Amino acid sequence: MSWGFYTSAGSQKTGSGMVNLGTFTVGSTSLTFSSIPQSYSNLRVIWIAQGSRASYANTGGRFTINGATTYYDQIYTTSTGSAALASQSSWYIGQIPTATRTNDNYVCNVIIDIPSYAKTNMIKGFSSTCSGHDGTTQLNAVCCGTNRADVAAVTSIALTDDVASTPGTRSFAQLWAY
To answer: What is the CA radius of gyration of the chain?
Structure first.
């Protein structure tokens, strides 16, 4: 399967110099990348995000690194406003639609970059963009942040929403290194 210059073939190097480290297919019940190899410089997550909340309300897309549940600081701008958050339990990437809408094809397209992920003795940070629609509202966000307590190399990334523990029926994700 091909997505522009991305490819879903495992560990295949593309013309951009990116290497696919893993893919979760549509319908996966968990989106956690673990045992991430430390032989690259940067990580990129491509996430087609959808929540599984049992109501029509949108939910917040979130992610964590290395299983940490504290000290996630960030700022973000969305289509409805801006905020600065400190000491959160995860990083927020924007609102994502739920699979229970009248049309469950609504998703958000999320790109998360984590630079210098394999370095130790430095705090980890990220930047992300999120663009989508829920049938009524644009769901766009630009986010960045740090985890001021985690100086270890990134070995796992968990993608979640802030209400339900499983992704929606259209969610899938890919992890790339470069």
So the answer is: 15
